[in-house]
Structure formats: C-alpha cells, structure tokens
Amino acid sequence: MSSWRKIYYRLLYLVLSFPVKSKSIPADLVSEYGIDPMRPIIYVLPYNSKVDLLTLRQQCLHHNLPDCMSPLEVNGKLLPSHIFVHDGPCVFPYFVPHTGSVRIFHEYLDLNYNNSALDIQILLVSVMFGRSPGREGHQGDKKPQQRALNMMEKFFAVIWHGRDSFVRFSPTISLRRMTTQHLPDKAMAQKLARVAHIHFARQRLAAIGPKLSERKNLFNKMLQSKAIEKAVEDEAHNKNISQNKAQRNAIEMMEEIAANFSYEAIRVADCVMGWLWSRLYQGINVNGSERVRQLAEDGHEIVYVPCHRSHMDYLLLSYVLYHQGLVPPHIVAGINLNFWPAGPIFRRLGAFFIRRTFKGNKLYSNVFREYLSELFSRGYPIEYFVEGGRSRTGLLLDPKTGILAMTLQAMLRGGNRPITLVPTYIGYEHIMELGSYAKEVQGAAKKKENLVQLLSGLLKLHNLGQGYVNFGEPLPLLNYLNKQVPEWCKIIDPIEPQRPSWLTPTVNDIAARLMIRINEAGAANAINLCVTALLAARQRSLTREQLIEQLKCYIELLRNVPYSPESTVPILSAVELLNHAMSMNKFEIKHDNNGDIITLPYEQAVLMTYYRNNIHHMLVMPSLIAVIIQQHPNIREDELLCQIRVIYPMLKKELFLRWTIDELPELQVALCQELARQGMITIRCGLLHHTAARYCTLQLLANGIRDTMQRFAITFSILKAKPTIKRRSLEKESYMLAQRLTVLQQGINTLEFFDKAVFTTLVMTLRTEGYISDTSDADFERTQATWHIIADLVTSDVRSIIETAVIHR
C-alpha cells in the first residue's frame, strides 16, 4: 500500500472513530463459527466502500482476527485479504461482478489447487449503517432497498446511524473443499462472486425485513379481500345496518388491531432499553440465535412462540432479536395493554392487539384473521404467546390454540415463504409482578393495567440479576404437515376460514410439541437453583456448606445428564453461584459459632416457588428416582422402572416433559449412574440403595418432588374413596383439600397448591390414561395400586391428614 493511501486510511479511521460504534453479529464470533485466526482469511464484502472496510477492520482487531487491510502472502505472492464483490453504485440495477474480485478469487483458487497444504478461509461480511426497511411505494414493492449508497448517502448514514451499525459475519467457507470438488477456472470464480452477492441480499433481507406498509393502503387492501367483503355483507344483514356502516365497523376493528411499526421508534426504544437493561440487569444471556439467523437467511417466515413470564417479555425479546441482527417481530398483545400512552407506543414497536374472545363476533374474527394472513404474506416475523397469558406459578400453562389455528389457516391459503415456529424460553432471576401473581393465585382479582400501575412498577425496578433468552428447536410447519397430514395441501376456499377434520388434533399436537420444546430450552440460574435447594429443606434453611454441596449436586446432574441439548446450565462454580444469588438480597444470613446459616424467610417462601418452578421440569426425574430409592431401600432396578412408568404420564402432562415412555429405561440408567458417581446411591447386582455419607444431599434432591406427590396423593385419595365421582367434582374437591393441607401442614408453600388449573390438568390426564372413563367411573384396582405407590412417597403426617380429610368429607 502506498504512503499516501496509508495516510488517507489513517485520517479516515480517525474521522470515523467518533461517530461509528459498530457491533459484531454474532458477538462471540470465533467460538460460534469456529474461525481459526491462525489460518489465512479472505474477507468478502458486498460493495466497494472504504468506510465499510475500516469498520470491519475495527471488529477484526477486536476479535483478534487477521487485519483485513493487510495483504496475504501466499507462496511468495502478495494478494489483498479483502475482496469487494461489486464496484458500488451504478446506473443499472442488475448485478455485474467486480472484475477485480473475479480475478482475485481465481488466483486464490489456483493457489489452493496447486498447494495441498494450503486451506484459506472465506469470510463473508456485510456492514450495515441503520436498518430502516423504508415504506412501500405505489408499486407495492415489499423488498428492502438492496442498492449500495453513494458517497453523500454514505456520509449521512455514518453521521445518523454510526452508532446503530452492525458488522454481520457468516460461517467461513473452505477454499480447500471447493477446489477438491470443482476445477479452479474463471467460471468457478464468477460463480463464487454471484453466490456471494445472493448471500448478501438474503442477509440484508433477514436483518432489515420487508418494506413497511402504510396503514391506509393496508386497510384498503384488506377491505378488498373476498373474506372481509363477505363478512361485511353478513354483518350488514345480521345486524340490519347499511353496507357502509358495516364497512366502517370493519375499519374501526382494523384500527383497533393493527400495528403501526416504525423504525425510528425502534431506534429510540433501543437507546432507552440499552440504558435501562444496563441498570436493571447484570447481563442478558442469549443461546441458539444462530439457528434463527439461518432460518431468516433461508427465507423462512418466522413465528416466535415464547413462554410468558412477565410484561418484560415483549421488550426483552425484541431487544435481543434486534441486537442479533434480526428484524423485531410484530407482537400479538392483549387488548388490556392498549391504554394511553402505552398502546400507541407499543403499536409503533410492532404490537397489534387482540381481544380476549372472538365469540359471537364473526366480523372481528375475519378481520383479525385477514390481518394476520396479510402479515404472513408480506414476510413480517410474528411473535405470540401460546399460553395466552402470563404464568402465575412459574410452570408453563396449558396452550391456547386459537391463534395457532389461525397460523395454520393462513398457511392453507398459500404463501411465498415457509412458516417456521421458533419456541423460545425466557427466564429471569427477578420478576417485578411476582407479588401480584401470588395474590391472584390465592383469589385476589387481577388489577387492570393502566398508566399509574405502569409507572409504579417501573419505579420499583432494581437489580434484576441475569436475564435468559434461549431459542429452542424450530418446528417447520411445512415439513410437519407433509409428514403428519399429507392431505393438507388440497384446494382451499379463500373466502371461508378452513377447518378440515384434521385441523383441531393437528393444532393440539403442534401446541404440545411447542410447549415441550420451550421447556427443552430451559435455563438454570443461580436464583432458581438456590431456591430449589432451600425450599427442599425442612425449615427452608441450610448451612452455607450444605447449600454449596446441594448446588454442586444439581449442577453436576444437569451437566452430566443434560435435560436436553438446548437447555443451559451456568458455567460458574457452586460457590460463585451462591455468591451471586446472595447479592440479589432474597435470602437471610444468620451467624453462629459454627458458621453461616442461609434462610429463605417464611413470607418469601411461596413467592420463591415461582423461580423453582421455572426449572422444575429439569430436575423432576432425578428427584423422582431419589424419592423412590429413599423410601424403598434395596429396590430392584426393574421395580424402580415400574413405579416411574406409573407416575411419569402425570408428570409429563403437567410439566411438558420431553421423554416418551419407551425412553424411560435409558434415562433411568443414566440418572442412576450419575447419582452413584456422586456417591448418593450404590448399585449392586441390580439393587439400588442410598448411602449414609450423602444421605442429606439425596434427601434434599428427593424433597424437590414431594409437593407434586402430595397433590397427586390428594386426587388419588379422593378417587379411591369415591370411584364414581364426576370429573368436575374431583377437580373441585382436590383443590379444596389442597388448600386445607396448606393450612394444616406449614411446610407446604407452593403457588401451584392454590392453582385450580394444575388439578384440571391432572384430572384430564387421568381420563386420558384410563383411570376415569367418559362416564366418570374409575378403574378401582388400578387407582388403588397407583394410590399405594404415590402414598408411599409422601410423609406419614401428610398421608394421615389427606386420608382423614377424605373420610370426613
């Protein structure tokens, strides 16, 4: 490089250093893509831009990668380490490869072909200043702007969007592998340049999304659809009003529903949220985002399906997606959030509102369905909470399938892009609504959201610890339907919403799979692990040494026998986890001559079960094995499996567990071997026995499922005593007896004991498993046998209270 060019680049770098603060996507580039900094790297950029090159150089130095501006010396030959695929702005919009790039590609291909020891990495990189998709023009073009910026446009983009710039890296491509599969001729070099250009176009679409539609144009298009035209006619006829009045009603519904997405609002929100998160959270942990980015680049229509813990979920997921280089989604929000000023703000951030029920309002259901279909057809990513509302217990709620059915109906109408559902686990170490959740579960009325409540909630926020966003295994609807329902693609009526006979069972199956995959992506953290251990202790108190030992037990279980490939476990040690949890000020420390005693205050115990329930599914099977072994010393492995098979279906339904019945033997072996490795049990000649040395650790592990077994014991005790009881009465009596037990047995402090829904789920499972017939007659012998298995797993005093209460009812 000549001296004047070095001076020019140095001056330009100094000028850019203040306005440009770029971020790399992904953030942990080297580990996620497995880039080897010791091997030569060619950086490929879409357009000839010195600003982009210097911005890339900044990230290369930050990640300890080879300098993109230093030439590569290969076999004594100097070649540039960066390539621009395209010259830049041109008169005609079609793509013409940069002649220099083709020549350099060809030279590198020749070098690799002639030197078998050489393996150069190709790293495709795009630099974006701002991510505004623009608005649709009169032609209705939905694709984002793909052209390069000229010098003046680049100048203003750097000034205005310099701190909103992203350097998007892609997985490396091995030139060695390419030269072994293809001849390194000029045609191959041209093809490589064309493929890179297509890749950059897809990458830009994934990051920016389609152009935004004007609300007025969108409403006019919806009014012209055959489905809404018919719905308006039916509205006018059924309500005896004019056609114009019915159409105005439809427009009012569109105004009530539709989002008003704004890139400028997203930018402002990003600044506010970045400031807010840095003060509220000690860190936000994201896992699995690379598969979502790949789906977006492959042209999938993405539907995010997260669990619903808090009102923070909306903001946190959009913030995370934006910083992962993805388009923030349009979010289905409850109409209760459409109050001033939150409603207009949420609309600008992509929220569109839905009423709690569509029942009796055909026009509204058609308008909403058409709006949802329009979002899909335009290619906007969408987010909705399949649980319907926020969980008040920390356990996943049974899914509400209405909007999921509409998603399938939208797919039945045809579309240009395949729809893929992405289950998402969102976890926290602190939730601001927890106090109100406990009151609502215990019978208090839910307070309506308003400005005063919003402001008071924000003022209380502080030290929320860590946040977790884990993207689970995606569920491509096209692949699923082709495999499970081959007849799904028959000709469909575009006017009436389709409800073929297979739709309801298919939607139910998809919903169940989504809930299982959300739990598969669970995140264990310091708070939920510490709370799990303390709630298992009789007086909710453990010495520091006992708590550290129990944390080690949980961590090693989750690491050595992971719940699923998508679940995450802290990398910190047990001591570091405890220190972090203590900094959250949720526990009390009492000192005596023998050391520290860590206590969970009685008034906090019920609230803290929320955090335990977030990961209850990840530890429930080790706890089940532990409690059976503890209650039945020297139990045979086959007998242990027999008892697990009896109890597992109820656990699976309640906690959306991932294993089938056929997978239980392998799971049991793995968990028992881990418990034996930790020294809690011994395995000799097919017999399992607990050890004296670590009996306390095993007991705390076993106590993690005691509350669940007590609820099961309540229902089976009633069913055993009243085998002809109706299902509704069984649910009601189980709930009432559970409330009585919480009063008589002080050690029981769980939110789910106050939740009617868990007993509804249990009774439905009993019906599915054949304990109860459609006529509400119980299988007495089977019920009796299961009762004895479960009754042995609860303490004698609890069993006595349950049996006495049932006799006197």
Helix content: 40-55%
Radius of gyration: 30 Å
Which CATH architecture of the largest domain is right? 3-Layer(aba) Sandwich
Termini, distance in Å? 92 Å
Q: Which blocks of ≥5 consecutive residues have pLDDT under 50?
A: 90-96
Separate helix tally = 33
Silhouette: globular
The CATH topology assignment of the largest domain is Glycerol-3-phosphate (1)-acyltransferase
Kindly give the count of domains.
Answer: 5
Strand fraction = 5-15%
Largest sheet: 8 strands, mixed
Report the strand count: 22
Q: Which oligomerization state do the chains in this entry correspond to?
A: single chain
Structural class: alpha/beta
CATH class of the largest domain: Alpha Beta
Mean pLDDT score, rounded? 87
